Amino acid sequence: MSGYNGPGNYGAPQQQPGPYGQQPGPYGQQPGPYGQPGQQPGPYGQPHPQQPGPYGGQPGGYGPGGPYGAGRPVRVGAAVGLGVLATLVAGGAYCGLIAGTDKLYAWAAIFAGLVIGAVVGRFGGRHPAMPVLAVVLAAVGIFVAQYFGIAFSVQNAYNDHGMDISLSDVLDKLHIFDAWKEEMKDGSKGFLTALGVVAAGGAALGAGRSR
């Protein structure tokens, strides 16, 4: 007898089947859980580098910017600060338009909302709080602009008739809020004002996705 007892003799123990009845892979590779193949070793016994995730991002599916968008980092503080600044600028321009023409142009509220939302989204990225922040800032900015714009218009009307009156007197003694509500009862003005607030949220969302 030659002593040959089949494969695996030659003085080496036979390999035992792996879990779930699978055989070990080449180079001593062990199969992964649930029958999945393990990681293939690279040259000189080093493991291959991990494959990138979907869409060319990091493993796990997110891009370099994490879950709130790829590319540039999310700067919440800058978004808040510059959003407030944009509200002051856009609101001031809107207030000046109302005071200079003595008319409440509600369509201008849309432009003010778009400017505020674009600034917030530009710096806040895809952070889920940015559209909400833009809506809040736009609502406050548009209301204050319309309120003080009406107040300046009333002051101008009194001054044009030879009655000197200060802005503080207008705000204290006259019912500016009631005058604003009367303006909003006009269906088109109320709708366009609300549309300007909503437009701010949409602009923030769009600007954040485009980063």
From TrEMBL:
Highest taxon of the source?
Answer: Bacteria
* Biased composition, class Gly residues, residue ranges: 54-67
Q: Where are the transmembrane segments?
A: 76-99, 105-125, 132-154, 190-208
Q: Which residues lie within the region annotated Disordered?
A: 1-67
Signal peptide limits: none
Low complexity compositional bias: what residue ranges? Answer: 10-43
Q: Does the keyword Transport apply?
A: no
Sorted UniProt keywords: Membrane, Transmembrane, Transmembrane helix
Q: What is this protein called?
A: Uncharacterized protein
